[in-house]
Amino acid sequence: MTPESIHALFSALRAANPEPRGELRHGNPFELLVAVVLSAQATDVGVNRATPALFAAAPDPAAMVRLGEEGIRGLIRTIGLFNTKSRNVWELSRLLLERHGGSVPQDRAALEALPGVGRKTANIVLNIAFGQPTIAVDTHVFRVANRTGLAPGKTPEAVEKGLEQVVPPEFKRHAHHWLILHGRYVCQARKPRCGDCLLRPQCEFSEKGT
């Protein structure tokens, strides 16, 4: 995809949705971090059903530690892998208190040192909570980047590197939100809605439907 096409693609996404938002509900950086950890191999809708009760009981790391692993488990039982996730949420809360005074660090290495936090989770937190122009590559971003020809790559890391290189600076702050939402609602895995796609003029997908 040419630089001109890439600029036109993101211009179209921005025009349609100037201020895209992540769909995980949260009230502060800690709640966002927990919600993203819980969202691994789960849907945002499913996480959003469970987190109101969890955050009401434990809105900060100290309260989460007091709630305990068993208490967390009981409140997130509807989410897949709840045993592992309850342990990770309790432990990351403890480490936030021990290492960071109860605050969520604004540093990738510090975030990735927490249980259940990988590169994608760290990128999401840095972007949404702290406004950093990071690009988180989930399954939707990976698919859109490859299918359109925007930033082809065989791994999420390769796609992230490609996007970092080709996305114009003016679009980087919101790039992954636009691509996630586009992949979730338009450029879907099994039946992409090519006829409704505002990126059709730039897209290089060889099997575009109507």
Task: Please provide a written account of the structure.
This protein is an all-alpha fold. The protein folds into two domains: about 5-20 and about 135-195, Helix-hairpin-Helix base-excision DNA repair enzymes (C-terminal) (Endonuclease Iii, domain 2, Orthogonal Bundle), CATH 1.10.1670.10; about 30-130, Orthogonal Bundle (Endonuclease III, domain 1), CATH 1.10.340. About 60% of the residues lie in helices and about 0% in strands. The chain contains eleven helices and no strands. The chain has helices at about 5-15, 30-40, 45-55, 60-75, 80-100, 110, 120-130, 140-150, 155-165, 170, 175-185. Helix 4 runs antiparallel to helix 5, helix 8 crosses helix 9 (about 155-165) and helix 8 (about 140-150) packs across helix 11. The radius of gyration is 18 Å and the shape is elongated. It starts with a helix and ends in a 25-residue tail after the last helix. The model has no long low-confidence stretch (mean pLDDT about 95).
Strand percentage: under 5%
CATH superfamily of the largest domain: Hypothetical protein, domain 2
CATH class of the largest domain: Mainly Alpha
| Name of the CATH architecture of the largest domain | Orthogonal Bundle
> What is the CATH topology assignment of the largest domain?
Endonuclease III, domain 1
User: Taking all residues together, what is the mean pLDDT?
Assistant: 94
Quaternary structure of the protein:
single chain
The 3D shape can be described as elongated
Distance between the termini: 21 Å
Q: What can be said about the biggest beta sheet?
A: none
| CA gyration radius, whole angstroms | 18 Å
Tally of individual helices: 11
What is the number of beta strands?
0
**Low-confidence parts:** none
Determine the structural class based on helices, strands and strand pairing.
mainly alpha
Number of domains: 2
